[in-house]
Amino acid sequence: MMNEAAALTRGDAMVLSGQSPSGDLTVRAARPDGRNRRAAETRRRILTAAKEMIAETSTAPTVVAVAKRADVSVRSVFQHFGDVESLFVTTVDSIGEDLVVPPPASQGLALGLRIATAVENLARLFDKIIPLRVAAGQFAHHPALIERSNGLRQKVRRRVAELFAPEFAVLDEKAQEELADAIGGALSLEAWVVLRRRDGFSYDRAAAAWRRTLTALMAHRADAAAAA
């Protein structure tokens, strides 16, 4: 017979609390685990502080600076993230959850409209990522960040291929790969950072440069297809 608590409190789960006077098992709601909730709130505050500092400064924040902004101890930061690299990678993932690579526009649109759509979608996405990309400089060789960068690059490449499927379809496999490589290099996150940060272009000027570049690449593709 069970006349003692059948389980320890875990989060907000229901736990068995023994027997009622009639002998039936009774159930009571477990008390919320205050420690877990406090820990989750501390973690949230640390990540929020790190994301805000990256957006404002385009630099990787130090543990001390994050702790001060989040109003927690330095020890708390290390307890949750271990080291500054883990904190930065987790912050990257948290920011990434808020970013979406836009789906391609309809292939039925005129080529000019699809070019404009592709540039606008990529420019808006990359403009949000610029502070994070610049801040990641000191962690450029971190395996986790390389993996995430490659994942974004491949996702963008697939979107471009879907958007310009009719144009790619008339090319042989080698020419398709070359065109995809050319677009990927010309309209990359790194290229956008150069235009916006190094060259100081406004958003509209940088987007216009990309539209002209993509238009030229697609025109070259048409010439190559005709020659073939």
Descriptive account of the structure:
With 228 residues, the protein is mainly α. The protein folds into 3 domains: 1-32, no CATH class; 35-96, Arc Repressor Mutant, subunit A (Orthogonal Bundle), CATH 1.10.10; 111-227, no CATH class. It is built from 10 helices and 2 strands; from the N terminus they run E-E-H-H-H-H-H-H-H-H-H-H. It has helices at 34-57, 63-70, 74-81, 84-96, 111-135, 143-163, 165-169, 173-186, 189-198, 203-227, and strands spanning 14-19, 25-29. It has a two-stranded antiparallel sheet. Strand 1 (14-19) and strand 2 form a beta hairpin. Helix 3 crosses helix 4. The termini are far apart.
Task: Produce the secondary structure layout.
Blueprint: E1 14-19, E2 25-29, H1 34-57, H2 63-70, H3 74-81, H4 84-96, H5 111-135, H6 143-163, H7 165-169, H8 173-186, H9 189-198, H10 203-227
Antiparallel strand pairs: 1-2
Helix pairs in contact: 1-2, 1-4, 2-3, 3-4, 5-9, 5-10, 8-10
